UniProtKB/TrEMBL annotation:
Protein name per its UniProtKB record: DNA polymerase I
Domain of life per record: Bacteria
Species annotation: Oceaniferula spumae
Domain 3'-5' exonuclease: 327-535
Pfam families the UniProt entry points to: 5_3_exonuc, 5_3_exonuc_N, DNA_pol_A, DNA_pol_A_exo1
Gene3D superfamilies hit by this protein: 3.30.70.370, 5' to 3' exonuclease, C-terminal subdomain, 5'-nuclease, Ribonuclease H-like superfamily/Ribonuclease H, Taq DNA Polymerase, Chain T, domain 4
Reaction(s) catalysed (UniProt annotation): DNA(n) + a 2'-deoxyribonucleoside 5'-triphosphate = DNA(n+1) + diphosphate
Domain DNA-directed DNA polymerase family A palm residues, every copy: 704-911
Function comment: In addition to polymerase activity, this DNA polymerase exhibits 3'-5' and 5'-3' exonuclease activity.
GO BP terms: DNA-templated DNA replication; double-strand break repair
Enzyme Commission identifier(s): 2.7.7.7
Amino acid sequence: MHNLFLLDGMALVYRAHFAFMRNPILTSKGFNTSAVYGFANTLLDIMDNHGASHIGVAFDTREPTSRHELYPPYKAQREAMPEELAAAIPYVKKLCKAFGIPVLELDGYEADDIIGTLAHRADQDGDIHTYMVTPDKDFAQLVSDATTMWKPGRQGNNHELLDVAAIQNHWMVESPKQVIDILGLWGDASDNIPGVPGIGEKTAKKLVAQFGSVEKLLESTDQLKGKQKENLENFADQARLSKQLATIILDVPMEITWDDLEISARDDEALQALLTEMEFNSIAKRLYGDSFVAGRGHEDTAAVATVAADESPAANLKTIDDVEHKYHLIDDAKDLHRLIKKLSLSKSICFDLETTSLDPRTCDILGIAFSVAAHEGYFVHTGPGSHLSIQMVLDKLTVIFGSKIEKIGHNLKFDLSVLLAHDYPVSGPFFDTMLAHAIVAPDQRHSMDFVSEALLGYSPVKLADLPQNSKGADGDLFGLDDQGDGEKEKTAAKKKGKKKDIKMSLIPVADLANYAAEDADVTFQIAEIIRPQLEESGQQSIYKEIEAPLLPVLTAMENEGISLDIRALKEIGDSLARRIETLSTGITEAAGREFNLNSPKQLGEILFGEMELVEKPKKTKTGQFKTDEQTLSSLAPKHQIVADILDYREATKLKSTYVDALPLHVSKKTGRVHTHYQQLMTSTGRLASNDPNLQNIPVRSKAGREIRKAFVPRDKNHTLLAADYSQVELRVMAALSGDEAMIEAIKADLDIHTATAARVYGVTLDDVTAEMRRNAKMVNFGIIYGISAFGLSQRLDIPRGEASEIIETYFKQYPGVKNYMETTVESAKEKGYVETISGRRCYIRNIDSKNGTIRSGAERAAINAPVQGTAADMIKLAMINVRSLLDKEEADTKMLLQVHDELLFDLHLQEQESLVPKIVKVMESALPLPYDIHCKVETGTGDNWLAAH
């Protein structure tokens, strides 16, 4: 028996492209390879793991089909294909060709018809089992004893095989061919097949189960009643037409044989060239071994997006064996003295620590690498066997680290954190190549390997390739991440390579020295290339005035950590556990039977299948009932069980994410919780907190706020101080738009939501009701995010017409805001980016897309980015200036956390009266806004974070 796999090419590339929509896979030239990458992985999985003997990949063409002739509106409502996806499809076809796999397409026919024809032919010929690889439900009609649907999994889940029994069970039919009848009655919105008004999926299944086919049903309408009978009789022709449109053609005139589809030898030269062009290192290594490095070649070629599909530039990546270099091992006092003298005479030095783990507070330092010139590096060895102790080395290096010499590094915050944890602070100025690259190339990855290969055409030594002695001093064990994390490539996170455990202290000293010195050398060279790029991009001031000075501030905050009251947290956890139990019991009783509350599928079946809370419930692309928060929130006011489910979800999430997890993050060394901040994870520059994330602790719900009770001052001599920017985004919007009415309300220190409500509803400030203010608040913040009438109607649970009228009135009252939105979108289309008040560029992808949904999302991002980005710049500058204030005052007060628009401090009680007004003043003046708009900071203190906030 042969296994024939027929891939629905267009559906698979669409699926792959949108799966990576939030984090697209880009080459160093900026070409979006998400679709190619996702398709390639599916193809390789099938070829390597599932016994494929024959493969073909079917695609649609641009030519109209018989369905368009029969029904011109067929698929007419579909959005234009995203330009990036259209550009990727030739590469998908090229990939198939390199693997020796036929691309199947024929004008006048869809991919469905080609797959249907070949599956039908294989069914008749026998000795072939066909697997139709597609997520498209229409293919269910083709399933037979010899033909199975292969439905790709989502988010890493396994694929699903749908045989005859599965189709019969899901569609409630005797034969898979009856799926056509269901689609004829139900219609298909994605293909613009009309179906019959008033008949949805559930009703269509019942009618086909009862009557067998569309034709039999239309002959038996006398057995029906009411509106259903009327619609079927009035739209009988439309039902027949819809069934015809949904029927997959089984006799496409394809001149192809089974021999043509048999898997044959691949074209390695063409495949390697393509993998190199696409920069698919992981796939290349999977096919050709670790020695093959694909992509990010450094040569004068046009951007990949403009390279023709049949032209593949070579990688031309060099390694340590190809480049002359001078790397030196320093392991005695005399050599160290000479090195320090050399460093002291340099304007800039690059340094890089090698440590036994990624925890700055517990790791040991095995050595420090330096570079002051290209192709030259030094490794000061302080690990096992060295004549130098780390204490002695750091004492000697204090003169360097404390000097005004520029310090270069890749994710310097890690190095600075390790040294600070050892009580050796480092003075600026700093040049962090990871941060600089994130500014000039925000859409790319920022790992050192990637940047080196992209800018230098050089592939550094991989940590996983270094040998390890069988005996040696114990080092901390950690895993090597194959994907990398874009952060500091320190030890495990530093290099891509094999997934294996590495003990840094077991690496032979000579190999570790070359490895470390190379890192410093490469980073020094990267810095020289990125400097002019910062200037050319107009972002030098953003780096020099905001991002670089922020490095030591974040380092100090992370090192400081915050105290956690474990006893209070346990009490909160016990309360949540009781709440979870009560809610679980109530939900089960209301449902009438037990089910898995954590299963969206089972929950959907209870709420919408059995309880029928909604007449026409929404479904996901996989056919499950939607049970996401937005869907349930709209039903909660009307159904207690839904409100209880939302409460249950919140309680279980709070318990698992915070109550159970936070104690695990308490450092054994300090007894405090130390979060880690990422400076440029978002395009707007907002800080992100992780490991643990302390920025996402809910504040709008009572249960969420309770978690903050567990964060406390360090001792009885301190209290927690929260300093929070008040409505900063609205003030920024006023500054960006120059709207006179909004500026007037802010300068008059009016409640902006009440002022907006008065203008929108045409009443006095005193006559504004709570509901009016609530609606105005939603509009004020919604406008910042480019909210639509539909979106506002959903949030306020009002008719779309009423929401549209509110937005229209809003723009009449605040014409400057509307003008800002329109001009910002136009500017983004012209330049490809928008800017904050301080000049940070936020690049906007797909702003001119022909796909309306994608374009609308980009337009909303363009409107919002300058607002969010300016707020982010403001609080970053505030953190820098507050740190300077605390240093100047020689204060015992410490800055602990940044959470959105709020700063949290361990405030010494004796400094409260004198210091708090100064902190407020510094924050309010951090980034002066146009039109003399004043930024307002509100403060609070307390014996826990909740009380302070």
